[in-house]
Amino acid sequence: MQEPLLVGALGSACSRHGSRSALIGEDAALTYRDLWDQASGLARELAASGSVEHAPVVVRCSNHPTDFVAFLGVWMAGGLAAPVHRSSPAEVVRAIQAKAQCTLSVDLLSQQGTTQRLPVDARVQESRRRVLAGGALVIFTSGSTGRPKGVVLSHQAFHAKLAQNQRLFQAEPDTTALLVLNDTFSFGIWVALMTLMQGGKVAMLGRFTPQALVHALCQEHVSFLGVVPTMVRATFGTLTAPELAEARSRIAATGRLRRVVIGGEPLGRQLSAELREFIAPAELFDVYGLTETCTSDFVLQPSEYAAHPDSIGRPFPGIRYRLIDSEGEECRPGSVGELQLATPYIMAGYLGDEALTAQAFSNGWFRTGDLASVDGEGFVSIAGRLKELIVRGANKITPLEVEMALLQVDGVASAMVTGMPDPILGERIHALLVARPGARLDLPAIRQALAIHLEKFKAPDVFYIGDTLPTGRTGKLDRGLLQRLVSSGAVKPLAE
Question: Please, which residues have CB within 8 angstroms of residue 17's CB and are 6 or more apart in sequence?
Fold first, then answer.
C-alpha cells in the first residue's frame, strides 16, 4: 500500500520535531514523538481487527489531543477517518455509521477499549469503492432532508488544500494555534493539521465559552486562531465592556496573536469592525468555503476589508467560479446568481448517494447553493442561499439582506430571518433579534430604523426577542430550527 499523503506529511513533521510539543488540552500533552508512536500502535491494532484499507472508521472526537492520534492511526492503517462528536446522540451516531457502513469505531478515551466492531451489511457496492479509494476523511454535514450527507475528501485534495492555506497563513514551528472549532469538521481539522505539519503546537479547547476562549488566548500565548461568527457574537454579547477591554489588553500584552481566520457564515460590518479592533494589531482573514471543496475557496484579506467590507473576497489560486441565473445562463455583471465552482480540491462524492453527487454538479461545476454577485474589481459578495429565498407577495427576498439591515439598528447584536407560510402573501418574514447587553429593543423604533435601510416589502412582518440565535451541531446558524421554534410557539412575538 502506498503511503497516504497526510501520513507522509505528518510523519515528516514528527521526524523533524520529535521532542517538541504537538498537542495540548484536557489535561493531556503530546509531543510529536508521542503522536507518531501512539498512532503507530493504533494502526497495528486496527490492522489486527480486520480489513481497514479504503474503509471508513468512526472516530469519536471532542477536541482532545488524542483525536489526532486516532486520525493518524486510521490513515496509517489505510482507512478513512469519519469523525463523530462524543456528545452526539446515539441515534445520530447510528445514522452516520449506517450511512458510511463503518465496521470499526475508535475512541481513545473509552473505558471499554480503543476499538469496537460494528455490525454492517457486508456487501460493498463498487460505486462506494470508487468513492472511498484514496480517501482520507468522511465529513458528515446536514442535508436539506435532515439526513446526514457523508462528504468523502481524498488525501490528494485535502493535502493540496493544506498547502494552499499554508502559503497564505504561514504557520511556523513557533506557531501556537488555538483549536476552538470542533475537530469533527473540516475547518477545525485543517487549522490543526496545517499547524502540525509545520512543527507548531495546537492548544485544544474542549468546550467553547467566551471566558474559556479569552483565557486560552492569553494563557497559551496563541498566535493563530480559527473561529466562526457565532463564537464572536457570543463573546461580545456575554462579556461586559470592562471585561472585553481587559481581555483585549491581556491579549495584546502577550504580543503573540498574529492571524485570525473566520468563516462559516457572513460576518457583517459591525461585528467585523468590532472583531478587528479587538484583535489589533493581529490580522483578520475572512474565508468562504464548503466541506465539499475542503473549505477556504475565497478569502477577503486584511488590506481589502476597508474597500470591500461586505465581500467574501476573491478566489484562492487555482479556483474558478461563475454565477448562473435561474435560466441556467451566466449572469450579467452586478446581477445575482448561483455561485458555482471549478476547483482541484473537490470531494470524491457523497458516500452512498450517487444521485445526490450528480445533482451537486452542473457540467462539471460544483453548485454551492449560494446566491452571489461580483463587482467590477472581481470581489464576490454572498446574497443568500438559493433554497432560503423568501417569496412574499411574489417578491423574492434573501434573508441575508434583511439581516444585514437589522444589524444596522441600534441595540441589535444579532439577527436571524426566515420565511413562514401565509395564506395571503405566500410567506411572511419573521425575524429573531438578540439585543446588545443593556439595550432595550422597541418595535416602533426598529421599524423606523429599518425604513432607512430596506424597501417596505422587505421589512419583517413579525419580530421576536431571544437570548441567542439557534445554531446546529457545527455552530452555524440554523434557519430551520428558527422555523420550528416559531411554529411551536416557543418564541413569542414582540408586541407593538
Answer: 32, 173, 199
